[in-house]
Structure to design on (154 residues):
């Protein structure tokens, strides 16, 4: 199955990367590499990177929303930590932006947890989507390019 052979391939790529955003054992990088391995041109590869980014951010939006509208923290300790950090993040939103950007780019802290935390701390939706999308675009672009370089050796 290739993503550059039509809309059904791109839809598959989107769906799999969206699932990978919320199901940790579905690896988005492997999904992307499996699709970009058969990309017919640099443009097709770039489209796949954008599709993977949108798919991932769609899934991460579900996590953000769960964090934002969750009824309660899973423990008293976490509830206390959220109560301490929420006003700090509200007072200096650029800190939260940087955390989401770093997490979505390099995966540390894990972006799945950062997405939940961003919602729970009340980070603005637009800020979350912008920082996360930039990071995922950089991350997936690097993965696709590295995969292309490595496959060129074989």
């Amino acid at each position: 199955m290739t993503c550059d052979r039509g809309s059904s391939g791109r839809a598959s790529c989107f769906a799999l990367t969206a699932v990978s955003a919320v199901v940790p054992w579905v690896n988005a990088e492997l999904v992307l590499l499996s699709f970009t391995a058969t990309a017919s041109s640099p443009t097709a590869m770039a489209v796949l990177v954008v599709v993977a980014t949108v798919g991932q951010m769609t899934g991460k939006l579900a996590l953000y929303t769960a964090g934002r509208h969750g009824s309660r923290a899973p423990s008293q300790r976490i509830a206390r930590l959220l109560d301490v950090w929420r006003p700090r993040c509200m007072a200096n939103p650029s800190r939260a932006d940087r955390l989401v950007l770093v997490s979505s780019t390099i995966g540390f802290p894990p972006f799945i947890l950062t997405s939940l935390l961003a919602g729970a701390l009340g980070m603005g939706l637009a800020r979350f989507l912008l920082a996360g999308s930039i990071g995922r675009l950089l991350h997936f672009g690097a993965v696709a390019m590295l995969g292309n370089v490595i496959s060129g050796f074989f």
Summary: The mean pLDDT is 90.
